[in-house]
Amino acid sequence: MEIARPLAPPTGWKAFLFRLPVHLYRARLGWLLGSRFLFLTHIGRKSGRPRHTVVEVARRHSTGYDVCSGFGERSQWYRNVLANPRVTIQVGRFRASAEAVPLDPDQGEEVIVDYARRHPRAAKHLCRAMGFVVDGSESDYREVGRRLPFVRFVPDLDSTP
User: Fold this and answer.
1) pTM of the predicted model as reported, rounded to 2 decimal places
2) Pfam families in the record, alphabetically (predicted)?
């Protein structure tokens, strides 16, 4: 695996495109994105105000939704949920309060390897977008999983998906 370019959040027109799913959710059309995306409402660590973003669900299971901070530890949503892990999530039509739990690098490896098995082409493209060039091997995906932070959003028990 090689790193094609440093990880950095998008700017300009690319940032606008990345924000389009947020507007779909705000217009109550988030269900169009299916269960592969998660609308995250979190609290800004400096402003204390609600913030919104849409992230891709890398893995869904009985205890929650695993997502990757594709732009690393500098991602604003990631820094915010570390500072205040109480969040609200929406996946499709399901909405719940949840707790953000950072995953350790070993868990991150497993999440990305599982994702790559289920979505091989998407995994390669996403890795390239995040600055990694992978050959499709499990070892390459494991290295990506060790370098990027992952978070599990665990819905409250009274609102289990």
Assistant:
1) 0.85
2) F420H2_quin_red
